[in-house]
Write a structure and sequence with these properties.
With 246 residues, this protein is of the alpha+beta class. Helix content is 19%, strand content 44%. It has 2 helices and 14 strands. It is a single-pass type I membrane protein.
Amino acid sequence: AAARLAAEQEVENLSGLSPNPEKDIFVVRENRTTCLMAEFAAKFIMITEQADIPLARGAEVTGKCGTNESELEISWLQQAYTLKLFFLKEGHNTSREQEAFWRLSQVQFTYDTKEHTYFKNTVSPRKHTASSRHLSALVTPAGKSYECQAQQTISLTSSDHQKSVQLLLSEVRVQPFDITADFVFSEEHKCPVDEREQLEETLPLILGLILGLVIVITLCVYHIHHKLTANQVQIPRDRSQYKHMG
């Protein structure tokens, strides 16, 4: 069964298709159809070690797709660094019906301090794992992809004396379930930060259009009123002036 699953599963790193050199595109396919897609730029901040570790392009990828659980695993620099993203689809009851959604439920980052690209003069170098706790991120309605251009920070706690590690994600587009077209994301669900920034960008334009419309309407009303009053015959109030009329 495992051999059959391996034969049926295809995992691809399509980072060469991204115009951003810091962003990768990952695709998991089963039974010749896409079941998970992820596109993002990622960097790890090792606060106590003063090390910034980017996710290298051309990383090795594995993945698992399920009805309610999916997983994406990315390794680079000869597996000195491994990022695992766990996704969960579930539902909750509302006043009308049950609504399904998916979320990023867990993040694990394994790093080897024996690797000298980012770690220098480390005491007792070995592998450590940093994990998230009670994570509920990238929450998205079922059947949609998650999109967020803004940078997001996910805090992880390391097994290395409980040191803090931060995962920085940006330019994110992810869909771990319900992909209906091969290599194509479904309709996007934008993150609140992007929606707020978009509103801040368009609000001045909308206010400007409304102000311009008010000015035009005011000028039109003034012009019509002035034209009507100019055409009216002015009747003198002093009766002595009636003899000059006619």
